[in-house]
Amino acid sequence: MPHVISLSRRRITLSSLLPAIKCTSRTLGPKLGGLKMLRTLPVFALLVVGARAHLGEQEHLRIELDELVKQGTPIGSDSVKSPRWLEKYGPQFDQTFSGPLSFSHLPYHTCLEQEALDYDIAVIGMPFDTAVTYRTGARFGPYAIRSGSRRQMGSRGYTMAWGMNPYESGLKIVDCGDIPVSPFDNALAIDQMEVAYNTLIGRPTTHLTGTQPLGKDGAEHPRIISLGGDHTIVLPILRSLYKTYGPITVIHFDAHLDTWPAYVGTTSPQSRVTHGTFFYLAQEEGLMSNHSIHAGIRCKMNGAEDLENDAAVGFKVVATDDLDDLGVPEVVKRIRDRVGDSPVYLSLDIDVIDPGLAPATGTPEAGGWTTREVKRILRGLAGLNFVGADVVEVAPAYDHAEITGIAAADIVHDFLSMMMEKTVPKGGYPYATPLHIVDEL
Ligand SMILES: [Mn+2]
């Protein structure tokens, strides 16, 4: 049934004007306050004119409604003759601050169950945080990094630093959602992460045609960017990468070594598996090469023996202070020289950045690198044989104004470019603008 509104035209009389006169008087009264003229006839006439205009406008609206009723047009139904969104404004689109949450507004797929889905680079969340030594909360890291990425979009992904837009590179990038990891059983969760990674890396690529297929099977595999989660997620990742590529060389940005054999209180095999021991366990399992490298180390240690153990696990160290003494170019050179052309996995603990610039993390360490310094080093690593990367240990409960989530999302944007570019971009090292010293004397 059409919705009918009954309306009647009414005559404008002095009595019908009285409420409007009162309203107009209240509006104008204070402005004319104190003037005796307020009681005079000319002012009354002014009020009447104003009120008539007010009611006249209402009458105009009534006439329009009368016309609709006369035409039998149902009010509020779908057939009202008003322009539709599509014809007036075009397709619906997400703005930076709207839409469902996926990394950089990328297409969101439940990749683990979509067997036929292919892609070149997949973003996957690993909301696992039950193997930490200090603050929990990194299970919300994937959410925080995606949220921090909202101002990144395919249509606005070009940067001067890289001289390219990774979303318009021709490669297919998708957000694969989060792995549904158990928050109750770490052994189960770690197996779930490995099975998920095997599943994702086993899919065919869409466009990626590397000049050097790195897989043991002679094929090129999709690159996976993981959003942690605490750092333990790297153990199942390395297990999966090893199956695909053989021993993996790691570039590890972190304030901490993460090569400790065990912590005090370890009483079971499972309790050895933590966010500070996973590299030791990976080396024990033979998953890594012996030419990996840390960048940004500054944590307190048990003693110098920690560094001896670290070297035995297969790492060299670029300490936080080295950046001040050596500069970005030399730090980049040391990393590149160390890893060579082997299959490289890049793992970045957000705590490599100073807690002032990335406070939302589980084990903050004062005196870290700036976000800009980390980004410059990352640019210098373009062209290495990256097989995957992650940002871990983002725990947004400790964040302020999304600083950490935004920094982590920006770093993932750099990962995308870093994996695509075959050479170091001109905007970054080593082609930075030469310093021209002008003698003004
Ligand atoms: Mn760390």
TrEMBL record:
Keywords: Hydrolase, Metal-binding. InterPro entries: Ureohydrolase (IPR006035), Ureohydrolase_dom_sf (IPR023696), Ureohydrolase_Mn_BS (IPR020855). The keyword DNA-binding does not apply. Signal peptide: none annotated. One of its GO terms (biological process) is putrescine biosynthetic process from arginine, via agmatine. GO terms for molecular function: agmatinase activity; metal ion binding. It holds the Pfam family Arginase. SUPFAM superfamilies: Arginase/deacetylase. It comes from the Eukaryota. Belongs to the arginase family. Agmatinase subfamily. PANTHER family: ARGINASE/AGMATINASE (PTHR11358), GUANIDINO ACID HYDROLASE, MITOCHONDRIAL (PTHR11358:SF26). This is Arginase family-domain-containing protein. It comes from Schizophyllum amplum.
